[in-house]
Fold this protein.
Amino acid sequence: MAQPVTAPTIRAAKGGAPLVMVTAYDAPTARVADDAGVDVILVGDSVAMVVLGYEDTLQVTVADMAHHVGAVARARPRAMVVADLPWLSYHLSTEEAVRNAATLIRAGAAAVKLEGGLVRVPVVRALVDAQIPVMGHLGLTPQSVHALGGYRVQGQEAAAASTLVGDARALADAGVFAIVLECVPREVARMVTDVVAVPTIGIGAGPDCDGQVLVIHDLLGLEDRIAPRFVRRYGALKADAVAAVAAYAGDVRARTFPSDAESYHLSDDVAAALGIDRSPSTRTRTA
Ligand code: KIV
Protein backbone atom coordinates (compact mmCIF):
# COMPACT_ATOMS: atom_id res chain seq x y z
CA MET A 1 0.00 0.00 0.00
CA ALA A 2 1.40 3.38 -1.00
CA GLN A 3 2.35 5.77 1.80
CA PRO A 4 -0.31 8.35 2.67
CA VAL A 5 0.39 11.92 1.61
CA THR A 6 1.06 14.20 4.59
CA ALA A 7 1.72 17.88 5.28
CA PRO A 8 5.51 17.28 5.39
CA THR A 9 5.30 15.42 2.04
CA ILE A 10 3.50 18.38 0.47
CA ARG A 11 5.87 20.90 2.08
CA ALA A 12 8.86 18.97 0.69
CA ALA A 13 7.38 18.99 -2.84
CA LYS A 14 8.25 22.68 -3.30
CA GLY A 15 9.89 23.15 -6.68
CA GLY A 16 9.52 19.45 -7.58
CA ALA A 17 6.88 17.62 -9.59
CA PRO A 18 3.66 19.69 -9.70
CA LEU A 19 1.20 18.93 -6.91
CA VAL A 20 -2.31 17.86 -7.91
CA MET A 21 -5.28 18.87 -5.76
CA VAL A 22 -9.02 18.50 -6.45
CA THR A 23 -12.07 19.06 -4.35
CA ALA A 24 -14.34 16.22 -3.25
CA TYR A 25 -17.31 16.29 -0.92
CA ASP A 26 -18.37 12.66 -0.59
CA ALA A 27 -17.01 9.12 -0.62
CA PRO A 28 -17.57 8.26 -4.32
CA THR A 29 -15.85 11.40 -5.62
CA ALA A 30 -13.05 10.92 -3.07
CA ARG A 31 -12.52 7.41 -4.48
CA VAL A 32 -12.48 8.80 -8.05
CA ALA A 33 -9.86 11.39 -7.07
CA ASP A 34 -7.78 8.89 -5.13
CA ASP A 35 -7.90 6.21 -7.83
CA ALA A 36 -6.67 8.92 -10.25
CA GLY A 37 -3.66 9.45 -8.00
CA VAL A 38 -4.15 13.05 -6.84
CA ASP A 39 -1.98 14.29 -3.97
CA VAL A 40 -4.54 16.32 -2.03
CA ILE A 41 -8.32 16.13 -1.71
CA LEU A 42 -9.78 19.45 -0.60
CA VAL A 43 -13.14 19.30 1.10
CA GLY A 44 -13.77 22.89 0.11
CA ASP A 45 -16.45 25.20 1.40
CA SER A 46 -17.31 25.37 -2.31
CA VAL A 47 -19.54 22.44 -1.27
CA ALA A 48 -22.03 25.21 -0.47
CA MET A 49 -22.36 26.26 -4.11
CA VAL A 50 -21.38 23.07 -5.95
CA VAL A 51 -23.42 20.54 -3.98
CA LEU A 52 -25.81 22.31 -1.63
CA GLY A 53 -27.19 24.88 -4.08
CA TYR A 54 -26.30 28.06 -2.17
CA GLU A 55 -25.33 31.32 -3.89
CA ASP A 56 -22.02 31.67 -2.02
CA THR A 57 -19.72 29.82 0.38
CA LEU A 58 -20.80 31.83 3.41
CA GLN A 59 -23.73 29.54 4.13
CA VAL A 60 -21.90 26.44 5.37
CA THR A 61 -21.09 25.76 9.02
CA VAL A 62 -18.45 23.70 10.80
CA ALA A 63 -21.08 20.97 11.24
CA ASP A 64 -21.80 20.96 7.48
CA MET A 65 -18.09 20.74 6.73
CA ALA A 66 -17.53 17.95 9.26
CA HIS A 67 -20.37 15.96 7.64
CA HIS A 68 -18.64 16.12 4.24
CA VAL A 69 -15.13 15.63 5.63
CA GLY A 70 -16.34 12.43 7.33
CA ALA A 71 -17.77 11.11 4.05
CA VAL A 72 -14.50 11.80 2.21
CA ALA A 73 -12.34 10.35 5.00
CA ARG A 74 -14.39 7.13 5.12
CA ALA A 75 -13.21 6.45 1.54
CA ARG A 76 -9.77 6.08 3.20
CA PRO A 77 -7.87 7.89 0.43
CA ARG A 78 -4.11 7.81 0.17
CA ALA A 79 -4.34 11.49 -0.78
CA MET A 80 -4.14 14.02 2.02
CA VAL A 81 -7.57 15.30 3.10
CA VAL A 82 -7.64 19.06 3.71
CA ALA A 83 -10.80 20.69 5.09
CA ASP A 84 -11.86 24.29 4.63
CA LEU A 85 -12.55 26.19 7.82
CA PRO A 86 -15.82 27.90 6.91
CA TRP A 87 -16.56 31.61 7.22
CA LEU A 88 -16.72 32.90 10.80
CA SER A 89 -15.26 29.71 12.26
CA TYR A 90 -11.83 31.33 12.74
CA HIS A 91 -12.55 35.06 12.87
CA LEU A 92 -13.84 35.56 16.42
CA SER A 93 -10.99 34.16 18.54
CA THR A 94 -7.99 31.89 18.19
CA GLU A 95 -9.51 29.53 20.81
CA GLU A 96 -12.65 29.13 18.75
CA ALA A 97 -10.57 28.63 15.60
CA VAL A 98 -8.57 25.82 17.22
CA ARG A 99 -11.74 24.17 18.56
CA ASN A 100 -13.42 24.34 15.14
CA ALA A 101 -10.32 23.04 13.38
CA ALA A 102 -10.18 20.16 15.87
CA THR A 103 -13.77 19.23 14.91
CA LEU A 104 -12.68 18.92 11.28
CA ILE A 105 -9.56 16.96 12.22
CA ARG A 106 -11.67 14.57 14.33
CA ALA A 107 -14.03 14.20 11.34
CA GLY A 108 -11.06 12.88 9.32
CA ALA A 109 -9.11 15.81 7.86
CA ALA A 110 -5.32 15.89 8.11
CA ALA A 111 -5.14 19.68 7.78
CA VAL A 112 -7.32 22.77 7.50
CA LYS A 113 -7.35 25.64 5.02
CA LEU A 114 -8.24 29.23 5.84
CA GLU A 115 -8.50 32.43 3.83
CA GLY A 116 -6.52 35.65 4.37
CA GLY A 117 -2.99 36.92 4.88
CA LEU A 118 -1.22 38.96 7.55
CA VAL A 119 -4.42 39.36 9.57
CA ARG A 120 -4.62 35.56 9.98
CA VAL A 121 -1.12 35.10 11.37
CA PRO A 122 -2.21 34.74 15.06
CA VAL A 123 -4.76 32.07 14.10
CA VAL A 124 -2.26 30.20 11.93
CA ARG A 125 0.25 30.25 14.81
CA ALA A 126 -2.36 28.95 17.29
CA LEU A 127 -3.37 26.12 14.94
CA VAL A 128 0.23 25.14 14.23
CA ASP A 129 0.82 25.25 17.99
CA ALA A 130 -2.03 22.77 18.41
CA GLN A 131 -0.28 20.49 15.87
CA ILE A 132 -2.85 21.19 13.16
CA PRO A 133 -1.28 21.67 9.71
CA VAL A 134 -2.62 24.78 7.95
CA MET A 135 -2.94 25.61 4.25
CA GLY A 136 -3.29 29.31 3.39
CA HIS A 137 -5.51 30.82 0.70
CA LEU A 138 -4.81 34.21 -0.92
CA GLY A 139 -6.00 36.22 -3.91
CA LEU A 140 -9.70 35.82 -4.60
CA THR A 141 -10.91 34.60 -1.21
CA PRO A 142 -14.59 33.70 -1.74
CA GLN A 143 -15.49 34.14 1.94
CA SER A 144 -14.74 37.87 1.38
CA VAL A 145 -17.08 38.15 -1.61
CA HIS A 146 -18.98 41.09 -0.13
CA ALA A 147 -15.85 42.93 1.02
CA LEU A 148 -14.20 42.39 -2.38
CA GLY A 149 -17.32 43.50 -4.24
CA GLY A 150 -17.70 40.27 -6.20
CA TYR A 151 -15.67 37.40 -7.63
CA ARG A 152 -12.84 39.35 -9.30
CA VAL A 153 -9.21 38.76 -10.22
CA GLN A 154 -7.06 40.09 -7.36
CA GLY A 155 -3.58 41.64 -7.22
CA GLN A 156 -3.86 43.52 -10.50
CA GLU A 157 -2.40 46.83 -9.27
CA ALA A 158 1.24 47.14 -8.17
CA ALA A 159 0.29 47.91 -4.56
CA ALA A 160 -2.18 45.01 -4.39
CA ALA A 161 0.42 42.65 -5.88
CA SER A 162 3.00 43.75 -3.28
CA THR A 163 0.48 43.27 -0.46
CA LEU A 164 -0.26 39.78 -1.75
CA VAL A 165 3.43 38.89 -1.76
CA GLY A 166 3.74 40.26 1.80
CA ASP A 167 0.70 38.23 2.90
CA ALA A 168 2.22 35.07 1.43
CA ARG A 169 5.51 35.69 3.26
CA ALA A 170 3.63 36.29 6.53
CA LEU A 171 1.64 33.05 6.16
CA ALA A 172 4.77 31.06 5.32
CA ASP A 173 6.61 32.57 8.30
CA ALA A 174 3.65 31.68 10.54
CA GLY A 175 3.97 28.03 9.52
CA VAL A 176 1.52 27.16 6.72
CA PHE A 177 2.64 24.14 4.71
CA ALA A 178 1.20 25.37 1.37
CA ILE A 179 -0.71 28.35 -0.03
CA VAL A 180 -3.61 28.36 -2.52
CA LEU A 181 -3.49 31.30 -4.93
CA GLU A 182 -6.88 31.94 -6.50
CA CYS A 183 -7.53 34.22 -9.48
CA VAL A 184 -4.39 36.31 -9.55
CA PRO A 185 -2.32 37.36 -12.58
CA ARG A 186 0.21 34.75 -13.63
CA GLU A 187 3.07 37.18 -12.94
CA VAL A 188 1.93 37.74 -9.34
CA ALA A 189 1.60 34.00 -8.73
CA ARG A 190 5.14 33.62 -10.06
CA MET A 191 6.44 36.32 -7.69
CA VAL A 192 4.80 34.60 -4.70
CA THR A 193 6.02 31.18 -5.80
CA ASP A 194 9.55 32.53 -6.07
CA VAL A 195 9.63 34.16 -2.61
CA VAL A 196 7.95 31.60 -0.35
CA ALA A 197 9.57 28.33 0.70
CA VAL A 198 6.25 26.44 0.75
CA PRO A 199 4.38 25.19 -2.33
CA THR A 200 1.86 27.43 -4.02
CA ILE A 201 -1.23 25.72 -5.47
CA GLY A 202 -2.98 27.76 -8.13
CA ILE A 203 -6.53 28.05 -9.40
CA GLY A 204 -6.75 30.74 -12.04
CA ALA A 205 -3.17 31.70 -11.17
CA GLY A 206 -1.29 30.41 -14.21
CA PRO A 207 1.12 27.55 -14.76
CA ASP A 208 4.07 28.71 -12.64
CA CYS A 209 2.67 27.61 -9.27
CA ASP A 210 4.00 24.48 -7.54
CA GLY A 211 0.64 22.79 -8.06
CA GLN A 212 -2.90 23.22 -9.35
CA VAL A 213 -6.37 22.74 -7.91
CA LEU A 214 -9.76 22.50 -9.60
CA VAL A 215 -13.26 21.90 -8.32
CA ILE A 216 -14.00 18.30 -9.32
CA HIS A 217 -17.50 19.06 -10.63
CA ASP A 218 -15.95 21.63 -13.00
CA LEU A 219 -13.23 19.36 -14.35
CA LEU A 220 -15.61 16.43 -14.80
CA GLY A 221 -18.18 18.61 -16.55
CA LEU A 222 -20.81 17.75 -13.92
CA GLU A 223 -21.23 21.49 -13.47
CA ASP A 224 -21.93 22.91 -16.92
CA ARG A 225 -23.58 26.26 -16.12
CA ILE A 226 -20.52 28.41 -15.53
CA ALA A 227 -17.08 28.15 -17.09
CA PRO A 228 -14.47 30.58 -15.76
CA ARG A 229 -11.41 31.01 -17.96
CA PHE A 230 -9.26 28.82 -15.72
CA VAL A 231 -11.54 25.76 -15.85
CA ARG A 232 -10.56 23.05 -18.29
CA ARG A 233 -13.24 20.39 -18.67
CA TYR A 234 -11.86 16.85 -18.86
CA GLY A 235 -15.25 15.17 -19.06
CA ALA A 236 -18.89 15.81 -19.91
CA LEU A 237 -20.49 13.93 -17.04
CA LYS A 238 -23.57 16.17 -16.84
CA ALA A 239 -24.42 15.40 -20.49
CA ASP A 240 -23.59 11.70 -19.98
CA ALA A 241 -25.75 11.57 -16.86
CA VAL A 242 -28.72 13.29 -18.52
CA ALA A 243 -28.49 10.86 -21.46
CA ALA A 244 -28.31 7.86 -19.09
CA VAL A 245 -31.30 8.94 -16.99
CA ALA A 246 -33.28 9.78 -20.16
CA ALA A 247 -32.53 6.29 -21.55
CA TYR A 248 -33.70 4.74 -18.26
CA ALA A 249 -36.90 6.83 -18.36
CA GLY A 250 -37.51 5.72 -21.96
CA ASP A 251 -37.09 2.04 -21.05
CA VAL A 252 -39.43 2.31 -18.04
CA ARG A 253 -42.10 4.04 -20.14
CA ALA A 254 -41.72 1.46 -22.93
CA ARG A 255 -41.90 -1.35 -20.32
CA THR A 256 -38.55 -2.71 -21.52
CA PHE A 257 -37.02 -2.22 -18.07
CA PRO A 258 -36.77 -4.38 -16.05
CA SER A 259 -36.58 -7.50 -18.23
CA ASP A 260 -37.50 -10.97 -17.01
CA ALA A 261 -33.77 -11.67 -16.54
CA GLU A 262 -33.56 -8.61 -14.28
CA SER A 263 -36.37 -9.99 -12.06
CA TYR A 264 -36.39 -12.47 -9.17
CA HIS A 265 -38.47 -15.67 -9.49
CA LEU A 266 -40.19 -18.16 -7.26
CA SER A 267 -38.91 -21.72 -7.44
CA ASP A 268 -41.01 -24.08 -9.59
CA ASP A 269 -42.30 -25.87 -6.44
CA VAL A 270 -43.48 -22.70 -4.74
CA ALA A 271 -45.01 -21.37 -7.95
CA ALA A 272 -46.90 -24.64 -8.43
CA ALA A 273 -48.09 -24.67 -4.78
CA LEU A 274 -49.45 -21.17 -5.30
CA GLY A 275 -51.15 -22.23 -8.52
CA ILE A 276 -49.17 -19.72 -10.55
CA ASP A 277 -49.13 -20.31 -14.28
CA ARG A 278 -45.73 -19.30 -15.59
CA SER A 279 -46.19 -20.23 -19.19
CA PRO A 280 -44.64 -17.54 -21.45
CA SER A 281 -48.02 -16.31 -22.67
CA THR A 282 -49.13 -15.31 -19.15
CA ARG A 283 -45.99 -13.23 -18.67
CA THR A 284 -46.82 -10.82 -21.43
CA ARG A 285 -48.42 -7.70 -19.99
CA THR A 286 -51.09 -5.82 -21.73
CA ALA A 287 -50.80 -2.07 -21.43
O1 KIV B 1 -13.57 25.70 -1.61
C1 KIV B 1 -12.85 25.47 -2.61
O2 KIV B 1 -13.21 24.72 -3.52
C2 KIV B 1 -11.58 26.16 -2.69
C3 KIV B 1 -10.78 26.00 -3.95
C4 KIV B 1 -11.34 26.88 -5.00
C5 KIV B 1 -9.35 26.25 -3.74
O3 KIV B 1 -11.19 26.82 -1.78
About this structure: Residues 23, 42, 44-46, 84, 137, 180, 182, 203, 213, 215 surround 3-methyl-2-oxobutanoic acid (CB under 6 Å). The chain has a mean pLDDT of 96. The longest strand covers residues 134-139. DSSP finds 13 helices and eight strands in the chain.
